[in-house]
Write a structure and sequence with these properties.
Layout (H helix, E strand, L loop, with lengths): L1 H24 L9 E8 L17 E9 L6 E3 L6 E4 L3 E6 L2 E5 L5 E2 L5 E2 L5 E7 L5 E8 L14 E7 L22 E8 L5 E10 L5 E8 L13 E6 L21 E2 L5 E3 L5 E3 L5 E3 L9 E4 L11 E7 L7 E6 L4 E6 L4 E7 L1 E3 L7 E4 L2 E3 L8 E3 L8 E4 L1 E3 L5 H35 L1
Parallel strand pairs: 11-20
Antiparallel strand pairs: 1-2, 3-30, 4-29, 5-6, 5-9, 5-25, 6-27, 7-8, 9-10, 9-24, 11-21, 12-13, 13-14, 14-15, 16-17, 17-20, 18-19, 22-23, 23-24, 25-28, 26-27
Length: about 450
């Protein structure tokens, strides 16, 4: 019996050596989770399944389990766009030719078809976006990068915050002439875009009215009349102000303004009827074949003031843009995958999904730092990152192996000592047997 006890100890020590050796071998494996060998003692049972008595000696040791330790590893930045690490609970969900597997190794790439894949070719799962760029939650799909150019967006809204100097005096030279700086007090330009992504320059000129608390605004596009590009006559509107220097919207009547910008119900301006134009081969200004935004260009100037300070534009924005080529990818902590374009625009093209399990120890290792669900693990709970108990996504980073090399080297020494001690047990038993044989 002692031989069997010692032999079981050798088996156990060898198992511990194998587990420790595997941990050490994977100390630099991205997303690797270390294991530990767990042992239990053995006792002989009687035929009826009960122990033979209080004097029974154990029959050795057995391997109860080899458990994986799912403690997180360090997260280190890599600078690679599609590298991802999970900061918290969860696994990346992968589609491996129809089979669902899970991993913490977030080194992903783009294949020839634009799919986001692991080094083994398994496709990363997530949520797609609809035509409006909104995430379609709840329906997993293979994430794919759209490399086509970004469709241009015609300008539909402009927001401007302007101050016009209340101490300014009316120009001494008249009439207004955009080429003569002595006929206006202040001017600035804003780029606007047509349906084909062509940029045009919206010009706005401001002239202080003599003897009144108002200014006259002249508006052109590319120096032309917006509704008739063959003419240089600007659109003309009046900006009335209250005594406190704020815009007097009550004095502005909503509706069309002959020869000027229309006024919306909320007292913003509307550049309606704009015909995008350019010079043709003959050098004559004519329509360029594109159109303006369907609802016109709404110009929010409600924040315009007339204070005793230098005339200046303090804030300005517009929602149009030209076409753009894909220049890069970024991922936020919620797993949103953004395509970055050369025109400065960003577009959400998908969201990474994260899966978690009730019993991580029940997962079946598949190699390649991947696992598969089993009956013991339970079904996966899949959702968006940074929701519930699911972790966040760290973009441009990878999770290191969680192997503690110092601890594993100590375990290696312990396993070696255990092996030697059990070998000594067998050696001693052999010596005793030899002594008994010699006595006969």
């Amino acid at each position: 019996m002692s031989f069997n006890i010692g032999l079981s100890g050798l088996y156990a020590a060898n198992k511990a050596l194998n587990v420790t050796g595997n941990n050490i071998a994977n100390v630099a494996t991205t997303g690797f989770k270390s294991s530990r060998a767990e042992f239990a003692d053995q006792y002989s049972n009687s035929v009826r399944g009960t122990s033979a008595g209080k004097t029974v000696i154990g029959s050795g040791v057995k391997t109860a389990a080899v458990s994986q330790l799912f403690t997180p590893g360090n997260i280190n930045g890599t600078g690679q766009a599609l590298d991802m690490a999970i900061d918290g609970n969860g696994f990346f969900a992968l589609n491996d030719n129809g089979s669902k597997i899970y991993t913490r190794a977030g080194a992903f790439y783009s294949d020839k078809d634009g799919y986001v894949v692991s080094s083994s070719g398994a496709k990363l799962q997530g949520y797609a976006v609809d035509g409006n760029g909104k995430i379609i939650q709840g329906v997993l799909t293979d994430l794919q990068i759209d490399t086509s150019n970004l469709t241009p967006n015609p300008t539909g809204r402009i927001s401007e915050t302007v101050n016009l100097n209340s101490s300014a005096t009316a120009p001494t030279e008249t009439p207004f002439d955009p080429t003569n700086v002595n006929t206006y007090n202040y001017t600035f330009n804003t780029d606007v875009y047509d349906s084909q992504g062509n940029a045009h320059q919206l010009n706005q000129y401001f002239v202080k009215d003599a003897g009144s608390n108002s200014w006259t605004m002249y508006t052109t596009v590319d120096g032309r009349n917006p509704a008739d590009p063959t003419q240089t006559t600007p659109l003309v509107n009046t900006l009335p102000f209250k005594s406190d220097g704020t815009l007097d919207t009550a004095a502005m009547t909503a509706g069309p303004v002959p020869g000027g910008l229309a006024i919306n119900a909320n007292k913003s301006f509307n550049l309606d009827g704009w015909i995008p134009a350019q010079k043709n081969a003959a050098g004559v200004w004519a329509a360029n074949g594109a159109i303006a935004h369907a609802s016109g260009v709404n110009m929010d100037m409600l924040g315009t003031t007339q204070y005793n300070a230098a005339s200046a534009t303090t804030a300005k924005s517009q929602d149009g843009f030209a076409t753009g080529e894909l220049s890069g990818l970024t991922i936020d902590q919620s797993g949103n995958l953004f395509a970055n374009f050369t025109n400065g625009q960003d577009k959400v093209i998908g969201q990474v999904a994260i899966a978690n399990f009730a019993n991580l120890q029940g997962l079946t290792p598949m190699g390649g730092t991947t696992w598969k669900e089993s009956y013991a693990s339970g079904v996966p709970v899949i959702g968006a990152p940074d929701t519930g108990t699911l972790g966040q996504i760290a973009g441009g980073a990878l999770e290191d192996s969680n192997v503690d090399l110092t601890g594993e080297l100590v375990n290696l020494i312990k396993a070696q000592s255990n092996y030697q001690a059990n070998a000594k047990t067998i050696s001693t038993e052999s010596t005793i047997m030899q002594t008994i044989i010699q006595m006969t």
